[in-house]
Amino acid sequence: MGEFNAGNDRDAGVDDQIFSCLNPDSPKSFFLFAGAGSGKTRSLVNVLTRFKELYGEYFKLRRQKVAVITYTNAACDEIIHRLDYDMAFHVSTIHSFSWELISHLTSDIKAWLRINLTKEIAEIAIAQGKSKNLMNKTSVERARKIESKTRRLNSLPNILRFTYNPNGDNLTKDSLNHSEVIAITADFIENKHLMQDIVACRFPIILVDESQDTKKDLIDALFALQKRKSKIFSLGLFGDTMQRIYSDGKENLDKNLPTEWITPSKVMNHRSNKRIINLVNDIRKTVDNQIQVPRPEKQEGIVKFFISTRDANKAFIESEVAKKMAIATNDPLWSLSSNQVKMLILEHHMAARRMGFFEFFEPLYEQDKIKTGLLDGSNSTIGFFTRIILPLIKAHQDGDKFTLAKIVKSHSLLLQRNKLIESNDPSETLKLTNRACRDLCALWNGNQDPSLMQIVRNIEDSGLFPIPEALYPLASNNVSSIKSLNEEDEEISTDTTLKAWERALEVPFSQIVYYERYLSEKSNFGTHQGVKGLEYSRVMVIIDDEEAKGFLFSYDKLFGSRELSPGDQKNMDEGKETGIDRTKRLFYVACSRAKDSLAIVAYSDNPVTVKLNLLKYGWFKESEVEIINDKIA
Ligand SMILES: Nc1ncnc2c1ncn2[C@@H]1O[C@H](COP(=O)(O)OP(=O)(O)OP(=O)(O)O)[C@@H](O)[C@H]1O
């Protein structure tokens, strides 16, 4: 090991540079700009650990904290853990950070909403004024929007306090959505002197991880704050412009930084084997020519690109690819059953299809207000199945009476304290509960796989658990009741939500089991976007534009099997960003997650063209590209 140390520590000075920026007596701002696997997150944690030792007590005495803004909840938890839960740090996602700053400013939020809603209504009204047919779909939708926004505007005086619960099912007039929370916070930081004083005083240092994808409004507001408070405030950005994959991140973040900012950079990639670093360097070359070097002791590693037709049996192809990788790498863990291969799909529904919960997932995913909670598991209606029914049935099947009783006791309506007190005969209540529980579990008798609807109806009949409000009209077969329940809701089409639930409830319960597995750490699947910041020994990147149904990315265009549209051509001629640029960055993120070996599987209408282009780009060698079909068994 020793002989490599000098080389491997070549970027160590960066941590010192950053640490010196955090000196409370002479704060400086910085942007650490470095490629994948170069240790940006590691630097963040290292520097803060040093900060804790030297300035931690000083900050705590002054009731000040270093704010660290992370991109995901998972990153937030990881950093909190690595900083030993120390009180000198306030680690949070951008949304909770923002909400914490503004949540108590009810009258300011009202004023902001009043101006914003009035502006939005006026804009929609102008568009509506130009409509030739007020009965067409767009005009009807516009009229509905004007109406609901006006209702919201008129209800502002009655709001006592705003709430922010982006994942809840029941949005009401006093709730703010994701983008409002960010927009309001950015506006307050940029324009309210008192807010600037409060932020700079509470958080004299704000560090932003994955800053290239952090909402540009908020980044701009933090830049403005830094400019105004430069003597007492330090802003530190960690990021990589090549890894900007969300459209709301700030473009060219590394350009036009104030001259006094420190801009350290790193050249070593500590994560990946040499061949993988070569590949990501090549992908990057056409963008900014940032070349990384591997750790000398790293192995060569294996990269392979497999191409198949879109109509191929994908399960078969992907399992064949794993087998071929096992041989090429001499690594038996390259097997889809090993749980040791990370499969990177483009959209969640590709995982839903492969893991067997597509019919449950798809209708709910189409609903904006359900989507987030579906993806992060926080939706309370889905939680009814995943957090009550699933563990209950598992306990029943395992013969674990203790756990089963515990679940029933914590969630059952029948065993509520007041019910037991009211009851003349508590033992009868207990019997009733047991019977309800037995009847529910009987739905799984003889290996049956009941539909979610059967489960809901069974529970509705027995009263064992409270039925989630969103399902109530379906459970009771009383569709009209949902209308009155949610009549007051803002901009929510209750009908479509209800239809989505109706479709989702038709599926067998096993889809909940697979869905839960996808959400849990146990899943082999992740999206190209969602694995940002993470790393895996063996990675299989799966590419199929048609299956992904996305419009922001086009691997077919990147690999030259689909013509550029006139719009792409125009953007290209004008030097503007195209879908190809975005896709290249996404490809860079996905490939750079691999530590040891990497397989890419692309489904295309034209495998031969893809192969020729890959060789032409020089990203892969002939021996690394293989056209594969499902007739080879
Ligand atoms: N100086 C170092 N010595 C040894 N290992 C390191 C060093 N720096 C980083 N690593 C390791 O390299 C891997 C990548 O580090 P890290 O996740 O911090 O990189 P990153 O720049 O944040 O990556 P990305 O932008 O791709 O998410 C991790 O396993 C980390 O522990």
TrEMBL record:
One of its GO terms (molecular function) is 3'-5' DNA helicase activity. The keyword 4Fe-4S does not apply. Residues 13-286 form the UvrD-like helicase ATP-binding domain. Keywords: ATP-binding, Helicase, Hydrolase, Nucleotide-binding. ATP binds at A34, G35, A36, G37, S38, G39, K40, T41. GO terms for biological process: recombinational repair. InterPro entries: DNA_helicase_UvrD/REP (IPR000212), P-loop_NTPase (IPR027417), UvrD-like_ATP-bd (IPR014016). This is DNA 3'-5' helicase II. It comes from Pedobacter quisquiliarum. The lineage of its organism: Bacteria, Pseudomonadati, Bacteroidota, Sphingobacteriia, Sphingobacteriales.
